[in-house]
């Protein structure tokens, strides 16, 4: 197992210039929250293994030692709180671009999953930490299944998740991919940080969407509805049309999206 070392590939000016490395940790997001106040913006916490990795909506995240990229980025944008959820789309677009730089084509399942061959290969979890006087930090956690083997996925995950190694039938350079994600993230993040501009991230999320034009199940709370996905609007909301003809704009924190029978079947 090679330790993470991205010095040969990192071109970002502040994202990833400070990295806290761990062999094993409960969760990189948990650790990032602990150091966020003192850390410089762009500081990254990365671990070879997480014992309590979490995905969106409290789901467990499988992160075996030395086989993936499990990391969190500390961000300190001075934008309105309601704008903060858009960071997830920036993360998804950055991962897509990094994979493309590696010669790997993928799709985005709004708002926070990267999908290849109908299976999840990356998940993103964005969390906020509020401080005094209404200021806040953002922690964006990214987990990428890089070199996992089939036996690393339990039976419940085998039909839903995959790894880059399984897709390419060969190992992928974790150092290069990690640096490419950070480089692309900074390029997309700076316009948001300076002007609240996420147009490029939304354009990528729209063009590479695995949902637009598909019929899906929308799960929120104890309710489940069926709708057709029409678009992703300029605010990063998912526009859906229900069977009764009603349209709605969904915020990323509200719901979970699934295929008609499974994770992303028929999508």
Summarize the structure.
The protein has helices at 28-35, 87-101, 164-168, 174-195, 199-207; strands spanning 19-25, 44-50, 69-75, 107-109, 113-116, 119-130, 136-144, 215-220, 223-232, 238-242, 247-250, 256-258.
Number of domains: 2
CATH topology category name of the largest domain:
BirA Bifunctional Protein, domain 2
- Average pLDDT for all residues: 90
Report the uncertain regions.
none
User: How big is the Rg?
Assistant: 18 Å
Number of strands: 12
Widest sheet: strand ordering: 1-2-3-7-6-5-4
Identify the CATH architecture of the largest domain: 2-Layer Sandwich
Q: From N to C, what is the helix and strand string? A: EHEEHEEEEHHHEEEEE
By CATH, the superfamily of the largest domain comes out as Bira Bifunctional Protein, Domain 2
What's the oligomerization state? single chain
End-to-end distance: 35 Å
How many helices? The count is 5
Helix content: 10-25%
Account of the 3D structure:
This protein has two domains: 19-207, BirA Bifunctional Protein, domain 2 (2-Layer Sandwich); 215-258, Roll (SH3 type barrels). Helix content is 22%, strand content 29%. The protein is built from five helices and twelve strands. The chain has helices at 28-35, 87-101, 164-168, 174-195, 199-207; strands at residues 19-25, 44-50, 69-75, 107-109, 113-116, 119-130, 136-144, 215-220, 223-232, 238-242, 247-250, 256-258. The strands form two sheets. A seven-stranded mixed β-sheet has the order 1-2-3-7-6-5-4, with helices on both faces.
């Amino acid at each position: 197992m090679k330790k993470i070392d991205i010095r040969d590939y990192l071109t970002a000016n502040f994202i990833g210039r400070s990295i806290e490395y761990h062999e094993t940790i409960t969760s990189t997001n948990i650790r990032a929250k602990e150091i966020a106040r003192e850390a410089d913006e762009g500081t990254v916490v990365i671990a070879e293994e997480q014992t309590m990795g979490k995905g969106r909506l409290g789901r467990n995240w499988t992160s075996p030692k030395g086989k993936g990229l499990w990391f969190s980025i500390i961000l300190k944008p001075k934008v309105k709180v309601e704008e903060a959820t858009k960071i997830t789309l920036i993360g998804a677009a950055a991962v897509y671009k990094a994979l493309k730089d590696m010669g790997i084509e993928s799709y985005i399942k709004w708002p926070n999953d990267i999908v290849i061959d109908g299976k999840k290969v990356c998940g993103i979890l964005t969390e906020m930490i509020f401080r005094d006087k209404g200021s806040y930090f953002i922690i964006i956690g990214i987990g990428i299944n890089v070199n996992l083997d089939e036996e690393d996925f339990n039976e419940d995950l085998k039909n839903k998740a995959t790894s880059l190694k399984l897709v390419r039938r060969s190992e992928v350079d974790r150092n290069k991919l990690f640096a490419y994600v950070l480089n692309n993230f900074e390029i997309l993040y700076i316009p948001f940080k300076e002007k609240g501009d996420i147009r490029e991230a939304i354009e990528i999320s729209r063009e590479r969407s695995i949902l637009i034009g598909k019929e899906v199940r929308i799960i929120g709370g104890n309710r489940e509805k069926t709708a057709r996905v029409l678009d992703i609007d300029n605010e990063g909301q998912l526009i859906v049309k229900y069977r009764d003809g009603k349209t709605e704009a969904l915020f990323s924190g509200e719901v979970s999206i699934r295929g008609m029978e499974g994770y992303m079947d028929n999508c």
